[in-house]
Amino acid sequence: MTDFKPNCLPLLVGSLPMDNHLEATHLMLQYTPEIPLWVQLPLYREEGMLYQFLPGMPGLEIRGDDFYIDTSTERFEDEVLSFYEEYMAIVEEPEKIHGSRFALTDRTARGFSVFMETVKSLPHLPLAVKGQVTGPITMGIGVKDQAGRLLFYDERMRDIVTKQVAMSAMWQVAKLSELNTPNRPIIFFDEPGVVGFGSSTYISITREQITESLKEGIDAVHLAGGVAGVHICANGDWSLALESGVDIINFDAYSYFDRLILYREDLMSFILNGGILAWGIVPTGNPEYVERETLDSLWRLWSGQVQQLESFGISRQKIISQSLITPSCGTGSLSLEHAKKVLSLTMALSERIVS
């Protein structure tokens, strides 16, 4: 586990409902200056959750607004070979990640380069910086091949997706490390797809497949010198995340805290071993909830949840030192007015907790 102690600093998930990356970056810095992140603007099709991290994948085909992996072409095997050759070269010489196919570009991630330029020009460095990538499970069950089959069900494609995600995370750690912040870069794997484990929809996906894919990404972040987090914005089998070796778990505390604490032993072990909880306590899923909630109401909700953790025998001081305050998910689907309220509440709650 990481030795980073965030002490309930505010942190965002990633997406904003804006169309200008520089303006979005400046807005983000207003509310999360200590741990800023590069912004994702899903108003651009290229910055959709799945497509944004697909470039570099063998067999990628784009047809208008549709995209898929075509494994039937004559060139596919050559593309797979090239993919693995580049991957192995990076494993042997990690510095080769910089000019590789796994680098984010302005075509799908303009927010990253804008973020780097902006942070370098700040008068004071932030404590840490955050990046994010769509996780291997969500990517694998969200992207299909030319026949409409989910990639995660194909053993070879599952391995390719897992390595694609892991290398994207490693590249981000390498680039963000150039900022020389006091604490190591943080990379979150956005994994709403994990909640499908055990359901009839994904009944043939095994626990081992999920844990192996997650572990490969987490290991890549650690190998590059980063801190690994996982963001799950719905309910699921929380033992998968708690036992994954991840440093930070970002969960929807607004809606699912009562489900998380059912995993009492795993949760206690995670916290006592230094794991960080990123409390997604500010709602984003429903505009009505955003309008309804206030700083006082969220403070009462969070305080009650902390008291429940304290009843497990974990001190309030330890909980606070190993916590972050976040929205429950990204704000890209909200109106700008609602998004700004979410950001404001996130910062204000953080300030009240530590005041």
Structure summary:
The protein has helices spanning 21-31, 76-92, 106-120, 136-142, 155-176, 207-223, 239-242, 253-260, 264-272, 287-292, 295-310, 316-321, 336-354; strands at 9-10, 60-63, 66-69, 130-134, 186-190, 227-232, 248-251, 276-282, 323-327.
How would you describe this protein?
With 355 residues, the chain is α/β, with parallel strands linked by helices. The chain has one domain (9-354): TIM Barrel (Alpha-Beta Barrel). 44% of the residues lie in helices and 12% in strands. It has 13 helices and 9 strands. The chain has helices spanning 21-31, 76-92, 106-120, 136-142, 155-176, 207-223, 239-242, 253-260, 264-272, 287-292, 295-310, 316-321, 336-354; strands spanning 9-10, 60-63, 66-69, 130-134, 186-190, 227-232, 248-251, 276-282, 323-327. The strands form 2 sheets. Strands 1-9-8-7-6-5-4 form a 7-stranded parallel sheet. Helix 1 packs across helix 3 (106-120), helix 4 packs across helix 5 (155-176) and helix 5 (155-176) runs parallel beside helix 6 (207-223). It is globular and about 60 Å long. The model has no long low-confidence stretch (mean pLDDT 95).
